[in-house]
Here is the input.
Amino acid sequence: MNVDLLRQQTPGCADKLFLNSAGASLMPRPVVAAMTEYLLQEEQLGGYEVERRHAAGLQQLYAELAQLLNAQPRNFAFAWNATDAYSRALAAIPFRAGDVILTTDDDYISNHIAFLALQKRFGIRVVRARTQPSGDLDLDDFARLLREHRPVLVAVTHVPTNSGLVQPVAAVGALCRQHDTWYLVDASQSVGQLEVDVQAIGCDFLNAPGRKFLRGPRGTGFLYVSDRALQAGLEPLFIDRRGAAWTGADAYAVHPDARRFEQQELGGTVLGLMEAVRYANAVGVRAIAERNAQLTAHLRQRLAQLPHLRLLDQGSEQCSLVTFDAPGRAQAELTDWLTAHRVFFTVSLKSFALLDFSRKQVEWAIRLSPHYFNTVEELDRVVELLAALPA
Here is the structure.
């Protein structure tokens, strides 16, 4: 991996300590160039004509996603963000009153809210598996709940937004295959930083945005839909003419592949997402994962040496989200200090991760998320700044 070249293609990292790829990462030049050129053409020709001229490039998105995630182009649909993709998957499940969704304490806040909304409106029951004291998901408890409740849907977030924990989505998938249940994986924080193989995971749906570790534009995302789900005829509740054909006064036919989950209005951001996925494929997701592991291990080891900080990440497998707080100090002491020194980061509040942070007795956490274009020197500089935090 030529880190110097990657940094040259990432001008945003030149004048700051950017450690917020779990929020919205820095787009590389090819992504920005593709969208800029597309927008300039729209200025002259209008959106429909430019979409027609770029049809082949827009279609390439599906092939690039297939390469990244080990599937086929037919299994992918473009979405406007991760929640949009997740909602379309949820809307495809034929829930009835009393049905169970089995999930974890570490699922994303928007996902929990969606489950509770389904519970409120349709009488769905939400069941959560136990978390072990180590922070790992209790797979034995998960298997027991699968047997006892026979959930219609199992939903697991691969990497929680509030923690560096990596959940065992492949092991959960193996359990799901023993039961007649649909399996939805939120991979918003894992695609682009880890190797994600939908065949190994065994999921029916998987969603992610473009803006995080994939380094694409905001307002983009995708949904993976398994052949099993497609062949079963699952489709979103609200489907438009891109996803189906109107075949009679009272009849329609869905698109045969995952594009039944798409809606109209494709444009330059789609091309930007395609370029971001192509960029990740060119760098190599295995190389990305290996470098991220090295960078993050170094950062955690250095932060652990600072007595006034408390590392919060748990679990036997961790990744490029590093969270910590400072007992006895106000949140603003850290955030103002880091911001003044042009460190880009995120603050996670208790309301973002109510169950996890309640268990950890945490009110807030600083989240640093290095990516492969970062350097060890940048990480050391951030640690030096935290070590020099005024008393």
About this structure: The first strand starts at residue 17 and ends at 18.
